[in-house]
Amino acid sequence: MKAAGLKPHLAYVELHLADHCNLNCKGCTHFSPIAEKRYADLNEHERDMKQLQRLFSTIDKIVLMGGEPLLNPQIDSFLFVTRSCFPKANILVYTNGILLPQMPETFWTACRACSIGIDITIYPPLKQKELSLIKLVKNNGLKVFVHSVTSFHALYNRKGDTDSSVAFKNCRKRLYTPMLREGKIYVCPVPATINCFNEKYYLNVPTSGFVDIYAPGLNGWDLKEQLNKPSLTCCYCTLGWDVIPVFPWATSKKVLLDWNALTSQTQKKC
What we know:
single chain, alpha/beta, two-stranded antiparallel ribbon, about 25% helix, globular
């Protein structure tokens, strides 16, 4: 409910510390296998965090991810900046865990000082290391969360004729994952990261569905309202289908078919 003079809270936001990754997952929803090597800019991150601080009373959950966030050589500084702007937020680093045993003491010290949790996504190649990774994080005095991923859904409807409102509704039933990127908050990670997909395969999937956090006159209430509207990108998402194609985890061949859902089912026009 809007109240004069009061700022709303935002339930969730995620952002990339690195676009690229050290694990090559077929159908990665952030397109990391085909992304160029790119790290988030620390000064830009601090500026964006301070702007969100102006718009919202707090953010309940902030996820620093990728790609693989542990690849970012400045990750410690990102932790301190994020915590300084949002002292009450639940801040998590989402990682595939590969680099955790190699992280320097400065990383663990920063995590403890900033009360950062570590969320490990266990993919099949790392399954045997799951217990040792959990033990490592706990031994460093941090909260650890683990979830296993053994499959992906085929994300991309090449026809672009999914009913966007249905796709968005189905997506919000499952997830609420607005993504911050370069001064904009997107309704989900797909329009925020799909540029590399378009460039790689000579496509033109829309990259709309964002709010410029520096737009004149913008307030947190309006931003939240805009994040609850489908974007043109939703027309290319299989979440609007009756049956979502799923495939077991595999290594990406970096070809379009890694993401493309091939089906003959009837789809609604967007």
